[in-house]
Amino acid sequence: MKAFANLLERLAFTPARNAKLQLLRHYLMATPDPDRGYALAALTGDLKLRAVTPGLLRGLMAQRVDEQLFSLSYDFVGDLAETIALLWQADGDEDVPLHQAVALLAETGKAGLPAAIAAMLDRLGSSQRLAFLKLATGNMRVGLSARMARMALADMGQPTVADIEEIWHGLTPPYQPLFDWIAGGPRPENAAKAPFRPVMLSTPVDLDQLRGLDPSEYIAEWKWDGIRVQAINDQGVRRLYSRTGEDISASFPDLIGALNFDGAVDGELLVRRGNEVASFGDLQKRLGRKSVTRAMLESHPAALRVYDAMFWQGDDLRDLPLTQRRMLLEQADFGSDGIDLSPLLDFTTWDELAALRTDPPSPVIEGVMIKRRDSRYVSGRPRGPWFKWKRDPMVVDAVLLYAQRGHGKRSGFYSDFTFGLWDGDQLVTVGKAYFGFTDEELKELDRFVRNNTIDRFGPVRALQPKLVLEVAFEGLNASGRHKSGVAMRFPRISRIRWDKPASEADHLTTLKAMIP
Amino acid sequence: MRADQILHPTPEGLYCPPGDFYIDPVRPVHRALITHGHGDHARAGHGVVLATAQTLDIMAIRYGQDFAGQRQVANGPLRIHDTTVSFHPAGHILGSAQIAIQPDKGPKIVVSGDYCRRPNPVCAPFEPVPCDIFVTEATFGLPVFCHPDPLQEMSRLTASMAEFPDRPHLIGAYALGKAQRVIALARQAGIDGPIAIHGALQNLCDYHIAQGIDLGPLVPATADTVTAQLVIAPPSAFASPWVQRFRDPVIGFASGWMQVRARARQRGVELPLIISDHVDWPQVTNTIRELSPSEVWITHGTEDGLMRWCELEGVAARPLRLVGYEDEPE
Fold it and tell me: What GO MF annotations does this protein's record show (chain A) (predicted)?
């Protein structure tokens, strides 16, 4: 695992694609089977192990480190696995083979897992501990896409990237047949079926830009707040992919069972009860599960709202104009209640569309999609044929009250901001925001925090209430969690109002008036 | 006399009333005792400056010969008003010292400045000085900081130079102390060829060599084409046009902060090398255990962690919350 830990570390810090490819290729060439296959699967996100929960890891630490020291450390480091790897007190420096670590995580029962993980951590040095914990939590974050991994493989032998991609989804770790093929052996004959095809994405637009376009050349439909997916039934092989090509079939057996057609369609994954589309929060409960309980299938039924088709009954539709693809879909029988077609919006001018957009029939709509009638289905994000026109964010001017150090990329900077509004002559907190500012603004905010601290509560700093932030957000719900009684959705800092005195910030009544 | 009457923080820096002097003041004062030559501790413009001969030399190199009204070399115990002060090696950089203050009446205080317990080829090792009150930094005052053997880090550098033989390796290291230490470590790691150094390091490297520290063959990294594969430069140089002369460089940074990945990522570092001139967590806690002072004062850094440790160990401690020192003095 030493070589694997080294590889992870180098990949995590190496920005250049070619250098990443070289590091990975050299690792794959120098590492024996089955370790290199497991490493490859770990990097491409295809290694499905029993996911070790943050709770389990915290539990392990609680027995070994003072809680306050742990929380100060975690706060500084910003990553749970890394914090634990650094805090773990052990003198081990064994080079445990990767497949042993994988077997431990795959085979140990739930009850025995904490002790098994602790025993493994005792055997390892600090950077291997981190590699092992990243493996256990299934979150590598080394900036290596599955496609790049396949490019590194293609550099090792005859098969090209396209050759490898064609069969990739039919392979399982540790990929012995794949490595044999690359070394000159026979091509693995397996399900080269139902491959993922890169999806077509849109660019943002506003009314001013739209006025330059002829509305008759476009169709529009609602932009649903679910998850964009590609659903395929290729001669009986059924798969559901996220828009990045992750195979999420296992989490949605109900939808997989409903794909009673032959083709590859593009649509929005939703939770739908009868005709009522449920919130994104409900959909979230279905994500990332390896198995789904029957109760969950009944209470949170998955559905697909189809936008487009790439293949249909053996034909590749991607070069046809959108209107023709639509026509085929309108005549199609999807063979299931769980699948329907996204309806088109009736409009002749942009102002009519703007009126529809401001008053959508469902709260799970986050705007409208505008697509050229003649657009072909092309992968990537071409500028022009498809636009997304999201609902305008709401804004308030709030006062910065508390700050905490960020996690991840922002660790070490005060980047988690709690802000409040006036309620009479008191400021009450109404929310938290972590982004919206540039790196340069982050430095200024960090400096403001350090220079205006009036109190500390563990990692949280209370600040002089004098800086006004313009906070943008997508929606508002009544909430018991905040003192204020409202919760913002997707809040972010849209402007820093260095110019505005705190006394001129907005009042809570202004915010409450925005609740739908 | 109570301890905080002997030494307490002021806007100028730590002030000692019975000796009427400041330690590492951040504003001009009439008498300054300086622990070491880093810019946030050693500033120009004081009346009398008392420091080790090497620190005085370094200040003259950085600020010019007239950096103070008068220089005084620390050499053995010295009477200043109602105190006796002495300087002891801190193991941080060349010339770095702890300052021990023995007032005529009251507890003995040792201000350690920045210090490090790990052997360092470019300076004298830290000398434990028994005291009643130990004033410590807490730059790395969290238990996550357990810095590895620097030679192990150098082996990561040599491995990278072998993996990418055509790419120059630019290692960021502060001009005073860290740069010379990295060069000396590279020699220990078997890098014998010429090492290129940025112009900002020249005078300080020359001074180290004059003080008898072997840095091996150094060449200036100022020519249009630099052939040495290893280049040492101050981190600020990476943001300047100077760096444009290198094709596809591997940017590294030698610092104790590199132990935390997010820190390395914030700096855009491709090869983080965990090499620190400050005490890490085991060193600072072991030093406090070893000296067993009746009280610990914490000057700057992540004091919350060390405060908590002292609380758990039953050691009386308080933060001084000095301002003006860089938050990240590496």
Answer: ATP binding; DNA ligase (ATP) activity; metal ion binding
